[in-house]
From TrEMBL:
Family: Belongs to the ABC transporter superfamily.
Keyword field: ATP-binding, Cell membrane, Membrane, Nucleotide-binding, Transport
GO molecular function: ATP binding
CDD domains: ABC_NikE_OppD_transporters (cd03257)
Annotated compartments: Cell membrane
Name this polypeptide is given: ABC transporter ATP-binding protein
Organism: Tessaracoccus lacteus
Keyword rRNA processing: no
Matching InterPro entries: AAA+_ATPase, ABC_Ni/Peptide_Import, ABC_transporter-like_ATP-bd, ABC_transporter-like_CS, Oligopep_ABC_C, P-loop_NTPase
Recorded topology in the membrane: Peripheral membrane protein
Keyword Transport attributed: yes
Length: 340
């Protein structure tokens, strides 16, 4: 087995604010091999975007306190200088941002920005770069790409801007692609097209992909491993088939039972996990999920006092829960599986 291409160790991102320290990401560790996809899921505010920005080095120069290490192909992305990191961005690692406006410069045409993105890394003529860009704009589903090339970001609709940004991230065939909710603003056909493009990237260049999404259907389709985040921590981390066949954390059960199913009436489908996400300033004592968990009576230790560790429940399948593993399996089989 090859060494992991990406290895995050004890990654933490804390924001000092007037109200206290926001522990947005708090001790995350994960690995990713070339050619593989890690899906990261978790509800709004669980720390997914903050994690990706940390890998990209985009908390630099802000008040955020980032600690831990993120090794990419032997280089600690958190320790290198700004200049070296800038050189790596684009080709070694690239990101599709959740907010498409943040990624494009308003003063330059879309075509110029994409062309320059190529020419930073490669000595190619403007014409050759233009041809590559027009081709890529077409591949992400932008109609009339050669006309669109000369337009400014504000002339693009939200969906078109999202596609242009995806083109920007893919244009240099990055070895690591972080895709933060890349398809939420897009219609189903284009979504499928984008997922196909990512698969092509992976097949042709052996790229590693981090796929952040609310959509467990997308995870099932594209991920090799899945990390479920809750309140800035991983609560479950497993290979994708194991996660769907033997989900092991009550929060994951909540996500799975709230997943839309085509064979159910619409009104029946949407059952969000009951309760609200935790405060990241005053994280609940014990297990951060305990105020929303229906199973705390089964914990081997008091769930509202002791913080559970992320521990191996099954081979290559970790979770963070005080309920004994066999009992969890029983609860899942009896109470959750029949609802899926
Ligand atoms: N600059 C900042 N200062 C203070 N708190 C922040 C900052 N950026 C993010 N946060 C907080 O960190 C937490 C995690 O945010 P993040 O954007 O990573 O969530 P997310 O999992 O990506 O959610 P979503 O699914 O809505 O995109 C949130 O509570 C957010 O308010
Ligand atoms: Mg986000």
């Amino acid at each position: 087995m090859s060494e992991p291409f990406l290895q995050a160790n004890d990654l933490a991102v804390h924001f000092p604010t007037d109200d206290g320290v926001v522990r947005a990401v708090d001790g995350l560790s994960f690995t990713l091999r070339k050619g593989e996809t890690l899906g990261i899921v978790g509800e709004s505010g669980s720390g997914k975007s903050v994690t990706s920005l940390a890998i990209m080095g985009l908390h630099r120069g802000t008040r955020a306190k980032v600690s831990g290490s993120v090794m990419l192909d032997g280089t600690d992305l958190l320790a290198i200088g700004d200049e070296e990191l800038r050189r790596l961005r684009g080709r070694k690692l690239a990101m599709i941002f959740q907010d498409p406006l943040s990624a494009m410069h308003p003063y330059y045409t879309v075509g110029k920005q994409l062309t320059e993105a190529i020419r930073v890394h490669e000595k190619v003529s403007r014409q050759a770069a233009r041809a590559t860009v027009v081709d890529m704009l077409g591949r992400v589903g932008i109609p009339n790409p050669s006309r669109r090339f000369d337009q400014y970001p504000h002339e693009f609709s939200g969906g078109m801007r999202q596609r242009a940004m995806i083109a920007m991230a893919l244009i240099n065939n990055p070895e690591l692609l972080i895709a933060d909710e890349p398809t939420t603003a897009l219609d189903v056909t284009v979504q499928a097209q984008i997922l196909d493009l990512m698969r092509d990237l992976q097949r042709e260049f052996g790229s590693a992909i981090i796929m952040i999404t609310h959509d467990l259907g997308v995870v099932a389709e594209i991920a090799d491993d899945v990390m479920v985040m809750y309140g800035g921590k991983a609560v479950e981390y497993a290979e994708v088939d194991d996660l769907f066949h033997q989900p092991d954390h009550p929060y994951t059960w909540g996500l799975l039972t709230s997943m839309p199913r085509l064979d159910r009436a619409k009104s029946e489908r949407l059952l969000p996990v009951v309760g609200n996400p935790p405060s990241l300033i005053n994280v609940p004592p014990g297990c951060a999920f305990n105020p929303r968990c229906a199973f705390t009576e089964f914990g081997s230790r008091p769930c509202d006092v002791a913080v559970p560790e992320l521990a191996e429940s099954y081979p290559k399948h970790d979770s963070r829960c005080h309920i004994p593993v066999p009992l969890r399996a029983e609860l899942f089989a009896e109470q959750i599986a029949p609802r899926l």
